[in-house]
Structures are given as structure tokens and as C-alpha cells.
Amino acid sequence: KESSDSNGAVRGSYGYTDPFGVFRHVDYVADEFGFRAEVKSNEPGMGTQSPANVQIYAEPPPAGVIVERPYYHPHGYLQGGQNGQASAQQQQKR
Predict the structure, then answer these.
(1) Over the Cα atoms of the chain, what is R_g?
(2) What angle do CA 50, 16, 28 make, to 5 degrees?
(3) Rounded to an integer, what distance in angstroms lies between the CA atom of residue 65 and that of residue 15?
(4) Is residue 42 included in any domain, yes or no?
(5) Cβ distance 10 to 29 under 8 Å?
(6) Do 56 and 47 meet the contact criterion of CB atoms below 8 Å apart?
(7) 46-50, 53-57, 81-85 — which is least confidently predicted?
(8) CB neighbours (10 Å) of residue 27?
(9) Domain presence at residue 93
(10) Which residues span the domain enclosing 7?
(11) What is the CB neighbour count within 10 angstroms for residue 39?
(12) Which of 56 and 82 is assigned the larger pLDDT?
């Protein structure tokens, strides 16, 4: 749902729950002070940081939802090329 006033301020909300019970609900305001949102969720991996003036309220995911940890490749991004092979330009710099 969304509504606006005569000054151009917009307020609204939306949300959903997936078949596994993971939910997200967002209330937002856009006015002369900018865009602000409040997010309530139990999505796996959701932290409580508040980037970009967004208030986040995280809850544990429902039982049975698989929480995957992020995978970080041990090699840096400077490997370049295909299959980890350095490009000709990178090899010349070595």
C-alpha cells in the first residue's frame, strides 16, 4: 500500500512470506528529508547494520531453512585471464 500527501511526501509498505516461512516487511517514507525505510525480516544472513539510513530488525530464520555461509576464494582478483591465467598485459608487468 502507498499514500502521498499534498506536500509530495510518500509513505508505504510492502512485504511477503515465502513457502519456507522467510518473511520481509518494509515500511518506507520519501519526503523532503529523503528516503527512509524500516525492514523487518528473518532472512538468512540478514544482519542488523543500518546502511543508507535504513533500520533493520533481523530475526532468526525459521527451522528447516538452510543458511549458507559466504565462500571467499583464496586468490585475489588480480589473477585475471581465463582459468586463473594472467593476461599478456599482466605477464609483461611481472
Answers:
(1) 21
(2) 40
(3) 19
(4) yes
(5) yes
(6) yes
(7) 81-85
(8) 15
(9) no
(10) 2-58
(11) 18
(12) 56
Q: Tell me whether residue 49 is in a domain.
A: yes
Q: Which helix (H) or strand (E) holds 3?
A: strand 2-4
**Full-model pTM:** 0.50
For residue 44, being part of any structural domain is answered with: yes
3-state secondary structure 12-45: EEEEEECCCCCEEEEEEEEECCEEEEEEEECCCC
CA end-to-end span of the chain: 58
User: In this structure, which amino acid lies at residue 71?
Assistant: Y
Largest CA distance in the chain: 63
Task: Quote the number of domains for the chain.
Answer: 1
Helix%, strand%, coil% for the chain, nearest 5: 15, 35, 50
Quote the distance between the C-alpha of residue 15 and its chain's center: 15
